[in-house]
Amino acid sequence: MWRLTGREFRTCLAVLILVTVLLSKIFGNEEGDALYIFRNNLQDPNNVMDNWNRTDKNPCKWNHVTCNSLDSVVRLDMGNALLSGQLVPQLALLTNLQYLELYANNLSGHIPVYLENLTNLVSLELYTNNFDGPIPDALGKLFKLRFLDLSSNRLSGPVPQNGSFSLFTAISYANNLDLCGPIIEKPCPGSSPPAVSSPDGDSKPNIGAIVGGVVAVWCHYLLLW
Ligand SMILES: *[C@@H]1O[C@H](CO)[C@@H](O)[C@H](O)[C@H]1NC(C)=O
Ligand SMILES: *[C@@H]1O[C@H](CO)[C@@H](O)[C@H](O)[C@H]1NC(C)=O
Ligand SMILES: *[C@@H]1O[C@H](CO)[C@@H](O)[C@H](O)[C@H]1NC(C)=O
Ligand SMILES: *[C@@H]1O[C@H](CO)[C@@H](O)[C@H](O)[C@H]1NC(C)=O
C-alpha cells in the first residue's frame, strides 16, 4: 500500500494549514467578530445594534455598517446613538474603514492609539463625547484623513502638529478641557513662547546650545569615520 513519507506528510500538513488559513481569511467573519466585540463593550439603551447577529456570514447587513463590494467594512455611522462605554482594540482590525462616525454619544476613555492602524481612514468624528487624555500623535500617520473633529470632549495636552494633523485647524479641537499648542494658539506649559523678541540675557545659553549641537554632530561623524 502507498504511504506518505514523513517529509511528504509534513509538506502536506503545511499546505493544508495554509489553505485553511487563507479560506478562513476569505470566508471567515473577522470584521463581524471585531464589531461584535465593539458592541459587547458598549451600553446601547436604544438598541441601535439590535440586528447585529453574530451568526451572519459578514456584518454588511447590520444597521449603521456599510461595506464595499468585497464585503469589507468601510463605514461605521453611529452618531447620536446614546452609546456609553469605551472603544475596543478590535476596531483596528477593520482595515478598510474610511468613516468612523461616533459623534454625540457618551463614549469615554482615551482616544485609542491603535486607531493609527486604520490607515484608510478618511473621516474621524468623535466630537461631543466624554473622551479624555491626550490626542495620540501617532494618528498623524493616517495620511488619508481629511475630516477630523474631536471637539467637545475632555481632552488635554498638546495638539499634535505633524503628519495629517497639519491639515486641521482649531475648530477640530474646540471646547475641550485643557488642550494647548500652536494650532489652537495656546502655549503649552513649559514650552518656549514663539521667538519674537528675546531679552539680551538669553543669547548666551543659545550660543552654548548651538556650539554644543555642532560639537555633537562633529563627534558623530568622527565616530562613523
Ligand atoms: C441570528 O440569526 C439566526 C439565523 O438566521 C437566527 O436563528 C437567530 O435567531 C438570530 N439571533 C438573533 C439574536 O437575532
Ligand atoms: C497595529 O499595528 C501594529 C503594527 O502592524 C501591530 O503591532 C499592532 O498590534 C496593531 N494594533 C492593533 C490593536 O491591532
Ligand atoms: C455616560 O457614561 C458614564 C460612564 O462613562 C455613565 O456613568 C453615565 O451614566 C453615562 N451617561 C449617560 C447619559 O448614559
Ligand atoms: C509626529 O511626531 C511624533 C513625536 O515627535 C512621532 O512619534 C510621530 O511618529 C510623528 N508622526 C508623523 C506622522 O510624522
TrEMBL record:
This is Somatic embryogenesis receptor kinase 2-like isoform X2. Residues 29-68 form the Leucine-rich repeat-containing N-terminal plant-type domain. It comes from Populus euphratica. The gene is LOC105126443. It holds the Pfam family LRRNT_2. The keyword Ribosomal protein does not apply. Keywords: Leucine-rich repeat, Repeat, Signal. Residues 1-28 form the signal peptide. The keyword Isomerase does not apply. It comes from the Eukaryota.
